[in-house]
Amino acid sequence: MEKMSRVTTALGGSALTGHTMHCHLDAPANAISVCRDAAQVVVAGRSIFKIYAIEEEQFVEKLNLRVGRKPSLNLSCADVVWHQMDENLLATAATNGVVVTWNLGRPSRNKQDQLFTEHKRTVNKVCFHPSEAHVLLSGSQDGFMKCFDLRKKDSVSTFSGQSESVRDVQFSIRDYFTFASTFENGNVQLWDIRRPDRCERMFTAHNGPVFCCDWHPDDRGWLATGGRDKMVKVWDMTTHRAKEMHCVQTIASVARVKWRPECRHHLATCSMMVDHNIYVWDVRRPFVPAAMFEEHRDVTTGIAWRHPHDPSFLLSGSKDSTLCQHLFRDASQPVERANPEGLCYGLFGDLAFAAKESLVATDSGRKPYAGDRRHPIFFKRKLDPAEPFTGLASSALSVFEMEPGSGSMSWFVDTAERYALAGRPLAELCDHNAKVARELGRNQVAQTWTMLRMIYCSPGVVPTTNLNHSVGKGSSCGLPLMNSFNLKDMSQGLGSETRLDRSKGDTRSDTVLLDSSATLITNEDNEETEGSDVPADYLLGDVEGEEEELYLLDPEHAHTEEPEYVLPQEAFPLRHEIVDTPPGPEHLQDKAESPHVSGSEADAASLAPVDASFSLISVSHALYDSRLPPDFFSALVCDMLRFYAEQGDVQMAVSVLIVLGERVRKDIDEQTQEHWYTSYIDLLQRFCLWNVSNQVVKLSTSRAISCLNQASTTLHVNCSHCKRPMSSRGWVCDRCHRCASMCAVCHHVVKGLFVWCQGCSHGGHLQHIMKWLEGSSHCPAGCGHLCEYS
């Protein structure tokens, strides 16, 4: 046993004393309930059904209600309740659908009193009327609630919730005839036990199953509900329409909720899975629990305050087979660990800063920072002196606002709406997106799209027919296709005349081209020769002997000391008539006598003169392949995507990922892609760009993202006529054979967009329903339900 601080509470002459303690059970517990004098607790589960006395130092086992030689499913309990008027009366809900009552005053060992076998499936909850000794209410997985009079053998009333299962039922403490029920479809219904044909009120409380509810012991109309959406909501039921008063966000599905006695705004919760702790919340401060109990090592299945007028003792049972009594004074306080400082940017650039009030108070006389565009605005809630843990996490908030227009994000919205991500060829997508970025003044992004088009749609191919343009026409090609040429000191006149005469298309009969076999070819047409694919194998080399001597080498007599280089065809401008230039050297006219020239070249005309400083390096092949595959640029594209993501432009990173698809997906890890997608989708949803967000999810290359729009999309539809759940075979009801998609306003079949109320299942054309609800809040079908369109 664990001993801690002792507390004594005076309750009308009697006193509750004790401390934090626990005891080990024989099996996991599913539910617990306390008798009215707070001296005993009953623990029920699949394999346990015992009563323990709560003594000052420990729990003491008093009675084992599982008797008999053969185990019975009637003893496999999902819930248990102890009557608050008769200390000898208990009721249990069995997993086989049986409701059992127990009379502790019977002299025999078997205390079983009555069995009610009307439910067809597991009974999830049983509840005694707070002021009627013989009225018992049950809620089952079969979707029905039954009211029993313990003086009769059968139920006196049956209530149909028109849902799959009932998760909880609770009689109102203040309203004699009213009880609340919660369902797996997220609805909460209020019933009058005198009218079993229809509920008094119904509303959708949670996004998912509602597992529990509890009426406030003091405020007549307050109802707390907890669901799978990890929220606890407090509803005001005294108004014409259920009004949400408070909402507490927890970290796991809420399995049980109980109001704390004598504390109007406090309630205790436990989770159905994952989280083993018990929390006590102040609904006015819903983000940090007021207290936390951490004794259990498995899921807590049942909680109960020991006495309806004592806020100090809390009892709990768990799947770790322990029964605990928690002393509120010994609870840990998460608020002590809360960080009172915080910093956050708003969607439009506003900066919010929270700090301890003590720091703000001591620093309140400082001069404003010169860079502040505006003085901070302080927001401070007036604290309640009676509120516990008041001074432990009290912060002052400062907000620095952006100047109007300085943080406009219109470019983001325009880009997201105008970008094309699929449905066209890659080249068109890149061109379109580049145009959009350019029109929005984002020139770097536009240039990136243009480069992507060049890489993946126009691979790096430089045809051999265009190699001569790299020099003759001043091409700016950045690819190192051949060895370097020393064109220093080239005459400007030569270059200009070359371009002039080439455009005229003049021909010269004395212009020659030599092929690889050194055969003389007369150029009759410059333009035809320029486009020729015949490779040229002439060599221009640096002169070692006389200055302007040019050699035309025969491949058969090439020098063995130096490697042979072959100049690509027409690497220089073609021969043409040269105006106002000196005649060629005389020794070229005697070229036929040179030992380096074959006899067949003796009749060749003279070559054009070349300046002595014009140094030429012979070229025979390209340093790189003329075709560069897109994979060559993969590393560069990945670096580009990371650059944009690090700059905060996840829009560009995700757009390129979608457009390029498998071309770059394999080079970026899945976790990084998922992070980019998640960030971009979050931004789109903040700007309410729902269609673009759904398109990004649909086109994403990440498996974790593409399944986002496939989750939580199941709709459970009931027939608007007979209230029976619709099957998946169409819009015609199997029971009444009527079409469920009938407009309640015009009474015609809806063939397009259909909208319906989740409360009463009636609906119709979107425009008709919208127009109807503008003038009336009642259902147009006349069912009396108060429909709401949001």
From TrEMBL:
Coiled coil: none annotated. WD repeats lie at residues 116-158, 203-245. Gene3D superfamilies: YVTN repeat-like/Quinoprotein amine dehydrogenase. Its main location: membrane. SMART domains: WD40 (SM00320). Component of the GATOR2 subcomplex, composed of MIOS, SEC13, SEH1L, WDR24 and WDR59. The GATOR2 complex interacts with CASTOR1 and CASTOR2; the interaction is negatively regulated by arginine. The GATOR2 complex interacts with SESN1, SESN2 and SESN3; the interaction is negatively regulated by amino acids. SESN1, SESN2 and SESN3 convey leucine availability via direct interaction with SEH1L and WDR24. PANTHER family: GATOR COMPLEX PROTEIN WDR24. This is GATOR2 complex protein WDR24. It comes from Rhinolophus ferrumequinum (Greater horseshoe bat).
